[in-house]
Amino acid sequence: MNTLSARRRHPLAAFVVLFLALGVIGATYATLGSSSAKASASVAATPEQLVEGQKLFQSSCSSCHNMNGQGVQGSGPSLIGVGAAAVDFQVGTGRMPAMQIGPQVTSKPPIFTQDQIDAMAAYIGALGAGPDIPDPSLYNGDPNDAASVSNGGVLFRTNCSQCHNVAGAGGALTDGKFAPSLRETSTKHIYEAMLTGPQNMPIFNDNVMSPQDKKDIIAYLVQTRTGSNPGGLDLGSIGPVSEGLFVWTIVLGLLIVFACWIGAHTTKASRARVAHFEATTGKDASDND
Q1: CA angle, corner 176, sides to 105 and 133, nearest 5?
Q2: Interval 223-246: pLDDT, tens
Q3: Count of alpha carbons within 13 Å of 126, Cβ hemisphere only?
Q4: b or e along 241-263 (b: 16 or more beta carbons within 10 Å of the residue's beta carbon)?
């Protein structure tokens, strides 16, 4: 009995094993996460860049986001932890600084240079961990790679086409919001949008969608801009509703106008023949009825 008791496991042994297992899993996850972050990290910010970024931010953005990026109730959210990629996207596409608060902030030509955007991105990125500006190798998708385009098309149609249309032409949402067209959006900004999930868009970070899958989506979108359209005129690729509307309003309208034109010219031709008959014979054409 004493031997069996000595061999019996301690009541806390299971908890110790579970604790060690969780520690190993956490360490593995942290290692993989850090390696993934290094793959997309930009060049480390210099002290001068951080100072310049802070000045630009406080002079242009602090009225909505507070002097230190904590946010202002009713005006702008906190930027602590959003990362440099969010700043590069929002400011690089001209969405920020916003002109006015509304259902959705629209893109416009940026008012800052890329160096200034990089400085602000570095400053905000230093306030809290978040997605960094991706390396060009991550978003330079190849539209000539058939396998990449095919996989990207499947992923885009599954995850993105409900809002952005199957060809990335954009579409309307609720409450005055809309999914913007991706036809002219740069590949870097498309990748950053997937990383950061601006406005109504969900976040597709590397735990949700791999960097290669995001790159394949970009390859598909670039291919839709440059590839041939086997169906003929694409009418902007904005969907069957607009195409049906085009047929009913434009095509059918033209057919009605053409039919009226034929009818009018046929009547004029008949009257001309009657007048010629009466002029040459001196008879009333109605007498022949």
Answers
A1: 30
A2: 998 866 666 666 666 666 666 776
A3: 19
A4: eeeeeeeeeeeeeeeeeeeeeee
Residue 58: phi and psi, rounded to 5, are: -70, -25
Question: Which residue do the tokens 């005129």 mark?
Answer: 233
Average pLDDT of the chain, as a whole number: 82
Is the pLDDT at 283 greater than 70? The verdict is: no
Yes or no: say if 125 and 132 are a contact pair by the CB < 8 Å rule: yes
Rounded CA-CA distance 282/275 in Å is 10
3-state secondary structure of 80: coil
Rounded to whole angstroms, the Cα distance separating 97 from 63 reads: 10
Q: How far is CA 191 from CA 41, 182, 205, 222, 272, in A?
A: 14, 11, 10, 13, 70
118: tokens are 């990089």
CB-based contacts of 1, cutoff 8 Å, min separation 6 = none
CB of 193 closer than 8 Å to CB of 181: no
For 115-149, the pLDDT digits (tens) are 999 999 999 999 998 999 999 999 999 999 999 99
Q: What is the pLDDT of residue 231?
A: 63
Per the model's pLDDT, the better-predicted residue between 91 and 175 turns out to be: 91
* Helix or strand (DSSP H, E) at 172: strand 171-172
Gap between the Cα atoms of 219 and 230, Å rounded: 19
Q: Which domains does the chain have, with CATH numbers?
A: 46-133 (1.10.760.10), 134-232 (1.10.760.10)
